[in-house]
Amino acid sequence: MTFVKNTWYVAAWSLEIGRHLTPRTILNENIVLYRIEDERVIAFLDVCPHRKLPLSQGRLKGDAIECGYHGVTFDYSGQCIRIPGQDHIPYSAKVVKKYAVAERMGMVWIWMGDEEDANEDDIFDLPQYHDPNWSAAHGDALEYDAHYMLLADNLCDPAHVSFVHQSTLGNEEGENIPVITKKDGNSVITHRWILDSNPIPIFQKFGDFKGKVDRWHYYYYYAPNIAIIDFGSADAGTGAPEGDRSNCIQIYACHFMTPVTETKTLDYWMHVKNFIPQDLTVNEKLSDQFRIAFAEDKEILEGCQREESASHTWRPIRLAIDKGPQRMRKIVDDLIAAEQPPEQPPE
Predict the structure, then answer these.
(1) Single residue among 121, 139, 156 that ends a domain in this structure
(2) Taking 90 as the threshold, does the pLDDT of residue 276 lie above it?
């Protein structure tokens, strides 16, 4: 298995789920989501146990789903409540698998492990998202034809920004700045400061800098599927590296990775910024800059996936900048291993 099941994944933006049947594939499992009349979101395995037609091809009847093939009907607890033409409901048809779901930060989250093990307190939350002095803008659900670990590598790696994103998030002044990495439980923090440098293009557009800046990147990876990038700039020499960010431009770029299959990932992304919080036109212009940057990442990572899928026998080299991704992958491997059943001794 290449996925962690006992964790929360984003299944959809909250606005996408309503009084209609919405199919999703997450960790190779087909799921159907919808809202019941009290606005709660329900998620089932998207299959009728009779002929295996996806339930998403059926219809809502009140808060129940009626299969589109023979009308077998399930209430929102997953219990079969009707089989047309017979009164007896066989045991094999009584229950459809149900998933725990919750809503946070404008997203629908789903627990892919056993429903009874889900704890909503474990869902990630960014305090600045709720702060009126900050502005949050939801982006897109960008589809990558790549394994989510390739995207996670990218999101533990400040070094690529100077080369991949020269039109938006980086410039050549960061090329030789070393990256510092540390592990904290099931998190990896990778960062670097680029001092007394020119503003990157995105801050040239949205900042009011007259000269050089001190710039930072902090990449926070929360295993197995969340990355929060804290980056910003302040006028050079005004104390930002020492902790004074009272006069800076700062953005949290948030990535919530949802594996679809081994070679397809959805990245639900948003940004939360500390400048011009009420100007929605700025939010959209900034989102457009991120779309340019993430399209650049998409091209790179899909190229990596094509080569990983080829039958090469050689192993890639490792560089000093790979310490963050290596630590991240070790954490994920350990989480996956911990979910495996114990080996049975030979008889």
Answers:
(1) 121
(2) no
Q: Is the pLDDT of residue 224 over 70?
A: yes
In a domain, 345, yes or no: no
Rounded mean pLDDT, 191-216: 91
Give how many domains the chain has, as a whole number: 2
Check residue 346 and give its pLDDT.
Answer: 64
CATH code, domain with 77: 2.102.10.10
Q: Which residue has the higher pLDDT, 131 or 165?
A: 131
Q: Which pLDDT tens digit goes with each residue over 246-269? A: 889 999 999 999 999 999 999 999
| pTM of structure | 0.92
**Nearest alpha carbon to residue 148 among 30, 32, 252, 28:** 28
Question: Are 116 and 145 part of one and the same domain?
Answer: no
89 lies in the same domain as 141: no
Domain that holds residue 82: 8-121
Query: Do both 110 and 211 map to the same domain?
Result: no
Structure tokens at 267: 């990245």
- Number of alpha carbons in the 13 Å side-chain half-sphere of residue 157: 24
SS (HEC) of the chain = CCCCCCCEEEEEEHHHCCCCCEEEEECCEEEEEEECCCCCEEEEECCCCCCCCCHHHCEEECCEEECCCCCCEECCCCEEEEECCECCCCHHHCECCEEEEEEECCEEEEECCCHHHCCHHHCCCCHHHHCCCCEEEEEEEEEECCCHHHHHHHCCCHHHHHHHCCCCCCCHHHCCCCCEEEEECCEEEEEEEEEEECCCHHHHHHCCCCCCEEEEEEEEEECCCEEEEEEEEEECCCCHHHCCCCCEEEEEEEEEEEEEECCEEEEEEEEEECCCCCCHHHHHHHHHHHHHHHHHHHHHHHHHHHHHHCCCCCCCCCCHHHHHHHHHHHHHHHHHHHCCCCCCCCC
Whether residue 178 has a cis bond before it, omega within 30° of 0:
no
Q: What is the CATH number of the domain that holds 139?
A: 3.90.380.10
Across the chain, what does the average pLDDT equal?
92
Q: Is residue 54 part of a domain?
A: yes
Mean pLDDT score, 63-70: 95
